[in-house]
Amino acid sequence: MRKKSVFFLVLVFMGIVHLVCAEAAEKKRHNRISVLLRDGSVITTPDLQGAIAEQDGMFTTINRYVQLKSLSIDALVFHQNKNKYVFDWDQIVRKIHSIELMNPDLHAYDQGAMVITTKNGEKIKTSDATLLQYIGHDQPTSQLIVLEFDSYNKWWREAYLDIQKVKMIVFGSDELLQPTSLKPKEEKSNNQHGFETTAEGISRRLGKDGGGHSVYLNIEFDFDSSKIRKGSIPLVQELGKALVSMNLDGKTLLINGHTDSDGPTKYNMKLSRRRAASVKEFLVKRYELQGLQIQTKGYGESSPIAPNKGKVNKQKNRRVEVKLKS
After folding, report:
1. pTM for the whole thing?
2. What element of type H or E holds 99?
3. Most exposed: 91, 251, 266, 317, by fewest CB within 10 Å?
4. Domains annotated on the chain, with CATH
């Protein structure tokens, strides 16, 4: 009888532990925040990011080198039917499923167009919503706090991500983390200029399977500088990962820099050369690329892929192009 009692107590204890763990996992899921960036990548809270890294290959849009630390959002303010609504952080998490930011060109989302989807599926479209950094103040959120992985020093460091790079914020849902299946026509339309954001995409396009095509990288630099912006470091790291994963012994990689048409033509030519050289220096210092020759060249504003009008098109022209030399 004593053995049966002990066995019964063990079963009860295991059941309690299972329920506690399940409740903790469910609570963590509801506290989860995922952010979709305009380049197609997704950043999440650190506890989930670790789990994703263990399932390599399942997700193609997760940025494993940037984790979300804080949204820097204390309140959401918007107007609907001439009424003003103010949601504090607790109300946002409880009542709102997602916030889609519609104006990438704004300096900060003060009076910006947003689509707010509530937990019950209601969509609120407003042109004057504001994400406030501090409730009760008119200071809008301009940056998110993130953690960037420094592959050279092997540690995570705090950094900032401009709100303009954010397309959507989703609260308590896994939908942004599900594998996406684009139809071939849609994929071609979304990537018509050959821009890539992941090591897998870069290596596929550079390699034989991709026909040796050029790869455009939306690497941003500080204004009037060849210094790579912190927010673009993960993208250069994806390029480094791609090169390491490929058998490139005896091959030559071309890194070509391009600019928009702002500024003098001769100056843009020199600037594009310096920026291409900056990407090469980053790769050589941080990755084992023996046997791969790297050449750089600057084209300035001479090879635009979009009209040099408007911020979006000019950003497309301010690019770095990489290609394996045949």
Report:
1. 0.48
2. strand 96-101
3. 266
4. 50-176 (no CATH), 182-324 (3.30.1330.60)
